[in-house]
Amino acid sequence: MTIERSSYEFIETDLLEPTEKIVAVSQGKKTQKWISNDRQTSAPRIDVPSTYDLSVVIPTRNEQENIRPLLAALQHALDPLCVEIIFVDDSDDDTPEIIVDVAEAMSSSRFHIHLEHRLTGAARSGGLATAVVWGMNKAQAHYVGVIDADLQHPPEQLRMFYEQANAHDVDLALASRYIPGGSYQGLDGIGRRFISIGMKWTARLLFPEQLWSISDPLGGFFLLRRSLLTGVSLRPIGYKILLEILLRCQWREVLEIPYHFRARVHGQSKANMKQGLLALQHMVRLLVEVPSAGRIWKISLLILLNIVVTFMSFLLPTFFPASGSNLLIIIFALMAGLDFFLFNRFIFPSFIGPSAFIVQQIEDAHAPAKDLIQPVDAEAPTQAIEVAENTDVSPSSSKTSENIYTSTATEERDNLVQVAEIPETEVPLAQTEQSAVSGPKEHVSVLRKKSFFGMIRLKPRKQFFKKLEAIVALLAMLLAVAWISYTIPGVLLVLAVLCIGAAIIFTKDVQRDHMVVMLLAIAVGVTSVDYLSWRFVVTNWPGWWISVPLLFAETLGAIHAFGFQITIWPWSPPKIERGDDPTRHPIFIFIPTVNEGVSILRPTLEGAIAARDKYLTQYPHSKVTIVVCNDGRVAHAEHWEEIDMLAKGLGVCCVTRTVGGGAKAGNIENARQELQATNDAFLVIFDADQIARPDFLLKTIPPFRDPRMGWVQTGQYYANLDNPASRWADDQQSLFYNLLCPGKAALNSAFICGTNVVIRAAALDEIGGLPQDSVTEDFAASIALHPTWRSLYLTDILATGLGPLDVPSYLKQQSRWALGTLSVFRSHWRDILLPQKHGLKTAQRFQYFLACTHYLCGLRDLIYLISPILFIFTGIPAVRGSTLIEFLLHFIPYCVLSFTALWYSSRGITGLRGIIIGFGSFPVLIGSLVSVILKRKIGFAVTAKRRDGKRSLNYLLVYCCLFLLCIVCLFWATQVKSHEQTSLFISVLWVIYSMLMLASFLWLNYLDIRFHAATLRSGTTSETVANQQYPTKLLHRPRGLTPVWNLGLAALVAYPILISSSLPMFTGEASSPFVLAQEKRAAPYIGVSLPVQLLKGWSPILERDLGTQFAIVGRTQDIHDQFDTAWANELATQHARPWITLQFGVFGPKQKPPLDANLPAVINGLHDQRIRAWADAIRDYGKPVYITIFLHADRNWSLSSGVANGGIPQDVSAAWLHVQSVFRQAGAHNVAWVWAPADPLHDQVYAPPVAAIDAVLQSFINYPGTKWGEPATVLRNLTLRYPKKAIIVEASASGPASQKAAWLTGLGQAINEFPQVYALLYHEGGPELNASKTQMKRWSLTSDSASLAAMQKIVLDLRRKNTSS
């Protein structure tokens, strides 16, 4: 037995440094020995073993009476294990001396006692918990037990802890007082029991994710795997070291074992109120420092904070009506930054750790710690030495590294220290890499009861709290997107998301290339949402036959653009589980053939033989059978017998069918059943032209060690790249196989692609073999298999084949794939779209939906091509209510970011050729779609591998016709004048783009025809054999774009977000709202409306005659005019407001209204550019403006009539709302909208929604010789029709002076009677369009003195009323 004794002072770094010291070893130098002559402890020199079975840490303080029985019990219980006992002593009595004396008396080569005595003062800071940490730092065994010295923990149970932890390979074995078989009777008194139970429940409720299933998380009796502490900084307070370990360490499985907490026999308990307060302080520290600790409460507090701020933000417009919208943006930006800071700093922070691949390998190879940590060199035994007090040793005497720690005397200088010489060893890679991962495992344990000893095993598994976090995160994301979309539309939305995305991504330890991909993916997703939401708003629903198909096409395109980003997102690589040895399973290589011929099939068989031989060289115990599945006989192919002869000559099996059916799938299934390739077999499928590389089996078979691995897919690459059609098609294939398939595999969504694949036969057996009712049997099988089986995609180029010989072959291939995939979608749409209990996962559903709808891109491209042509010819736009600037603000970010993301992720892999050849397939894709809809039966057709001399060019007719149609369309666009210019400009650009795509595809056909002719002249009929070297296009990004520039750009563009809710450099500041209901007035305003002839100079004359100042001055203007800002500013200097009646044109000859003045033209956006110009000017004016549009729309004499000139009553409301939307989008909120029908009492079928009306105009136009209306009666009825709306009265009369004066007197009395009247205006000049001076004089107030006096009295009465109030 060796006794080691040391004492030391507290050094802060002892607790702050990671406890990976426990695996510390010397890195090249032996620790220097110090011998103190004045203080020396003699001990028998007994060899200490190089490794221990168990280390036991015992913290002690004044436990002199308990040491002897404790050590005796431990020695008896742990015999014959090799054990080290580490006492960490804080005693002030004779406890250390007793430990030495007892240890000398219990000498044993398998019982090693080490004493660490901490001196009074700072060394004892932290109490029992820091003592345990120090002891665990010194421990060397694979498992470390912790037990108190007061004998309340039964020592004999420690042996069972060790045995059960080893047997069940758990990280922690905990003694529990609160599960069946345990008790807490040793707790003194009811008070202490109450506190113990209360503290336990406090911890469990505060940290439910980690502790809810642990019954005794505050105990001090436990055993843990030593490697569990690697890479973790323990900072405990008080006594609750187990709580620290459970929350900071990444444990996987815990075993709870019941025990009886005994009563103390000797000494006094150290538990008191101070220790309880320290425990609470400890919990608070863990809550703050450990991200996963109490995460559910942190998320809840963050959500509550956002809810409070959101509700408070709703009050901003009330207190700050002018700047409320800007303040909302500032608050949003600040809260977004705060949210993501708190989220990434305290809830889900990242760590700098090993790569995902290394972590995967660690998890795959997860084994007990005894297998991860190499034993200490037996030739360098640990020796006991003594160190003199006050001996200082330079830190340079030993070295430290990231993974290896060397003990030095620096930690313990100025004290008498007993130092053990530690031999040099190496920490295995798995343990070293794992040490970089810190923090508890982010999932919750569930209980699983065992029959032995009443123990309870806690095994990690996703449960309630994990799901709750995911749900909360999803809801938070949806709310954030909705809030951003509502608050910051267009370009600012993109900038905001880029800033927020950068804030998230740059806190993560990801590769530079991944950072850019993630940022672009976030931006594309948000711009897609922004653009589509805007498109739905501005869609021209009345012209649905143009607008709806285009909206469908754009929606489909946006979904696929966003789906592309989701697929290529840098997901973690799939984890391969460990199971049985896959090399012991039989392998069948199936090569189906129909009419390819010997020249094509021979290289394929030779490649398969080479792959087989190389595999058997490394795994000679395995069995590989190559099978040719010959369908030539049933297909009546020429020379089909030659295939049998070829197989026989090469020594491979050949199965020739005599009964057809099921196409390729039926051919393979026939051979599979005949050869009994079922159950534990692996099936390798190659098309007849696919030549395997020699290492194909060596790379595809090992992943099947995962017992749930259903299939391993590899890429399909074309080697005959001298062929233009194959070269362009390979660009399209590369995008799928090199970029999309790895992403699909990460989501367990990589489907079977028909060739170059290995499938587990047992998986096919479950679904009855390959489906034989589809021409894409591979895709249909994948949907059936994926709910229960896993898939993997390997990016290595393990086989190459032949691409399409020419463009017609390519189109035929695309048609077959589209027909099969769309047919599968028709038959399996429930499996893909509808949730099922044991069906596809969400990510798999989305990937299959993208794959199925991909072939709708033919319909999408045709709609893109036809829609602008239809608008140019018909004048019916797909979009209304939008200006060019607004369109660009939404479309340009979406378009540019989508193409940028595509370019960045696919650079070096594919290019424009792949996009062009995909576009050119739209006619055959539409044909396949029609066949699926009509349920036509189309047989399986193999892509041709031989050329024939004849070739039809009829398929090019559709492309040439469309190209000529585009030319005609462009010519027509130069002739039309009545179309909305914004839509016309966009349509012309899109037609030009379509022409470029069509011309590029026709150029490919030209190259293909020329190559075809040259090949025929050379006499070649078969395509080049696919054994050429394929130019690798595998995705390899040594580094991405420099993220510093992205971060700097994000910071730069964040500035506008913080200062405004719009783009002032483009659109100007939004105007302050003008709300009539908020105006405080005692009497109606007095105003005048004037014809253009009297506009200048007449208003001051009337004001002088009436003895008042007009508050409102009205005029009529055409939409083609401009807002007269100078006139409006002049009115503002006189404290007057402008009222404009806006007309959409002028009457032509014979008072005929122009066609573009009708309501449908307004609804379809024909005048949007001019409306936007008015809105911008009025917004920039900034002061209140009254506007009337569609004057007298309920009568046939109106320019924009709801009963004439192509309008219907319902059009009035639609056009009204459309004009308002343009003003609203421009930020022109300083407008009061005055609804002015000829008969407002009976306008129900014409009127806009009441909420869209600020005031109603009642016109009294009294012609001579007619019956004049009774003002009081009319106003009474109008207040009943519009009880909550302001009423503006406009009057004008021509007739005898007495009649005119009397009627004006009655009008004044009626206005005083109804407080709802907002203003009274007299219309000077009369109703005639081009009135003469004589006519205007008859309608004027100054036509006679009686009328003028009557109006003067009205003004005087209103002034008195205003003064008295």
Automatic annotation (TrEMBL):
Question: What is the top-level taxon of the source organism?
Answer: Bacteria
Which residues does the UniProt record annotate as the domain Glycosyltransferase 2-like?
55-229, 684-888
Q: Check the record and name the InterPro entries matching this protein.
A: Cell_synth_A (IPR003919), DPM1-like (IPR039528), GH (IPR017853), Glyco_trans_2-like (IPR001173), Glycosyltr_2/OpgH_subfam (IPR050321), Nucleotide-diphossugar_trans (IPR029044)
What stretches pass through the bilayer? 301-320, 326-343, 464-484, 514-534, 862-880, 887-906, 912-934, 955-973, 985-1007, 1044-1066
Q: Which Gene Ontology terms of cellular component type are present?
A: plasma membrane
Protein name (Swiss-Prot/TrEMBL): Glycosyltransferase 2-like domain-containing protein
Which SUPFAM superfamilies does this entry report, sorted A to Z?
(Trans)glycosidases, Nucleotide-diphospho-sugar transferases
Q: Which UniProt keywords apply?
A: Glycosyltransferase, Membrane, Transferase, Transmembrane, Transmembrane helix
Q: Name one Pfam family in it.
A: Glyco_trans_2_3
- Gene3D superfamilies (alphabetical): Glycosidases, Spore Coat Polysaccharide Biosynthesis Protein SpsA, Chain A
Q: How does it sit in the membrane?
A: Multi-pass membrane protein
Any one GO molecular-function label of the UniProt entry:
cellulose synthase activity
Q: Does the keyword Transmembrane apply?
A: yes
The GO annotation for biological process reads: UDP-alpha-D-glucose metabolic process
Q: Where in the cell is it found?
A: Membrane
The record lists the organism as Reticulibacter mediterranei
Question: Among its keywords, does the record have Acyltransferase?
Answer: no
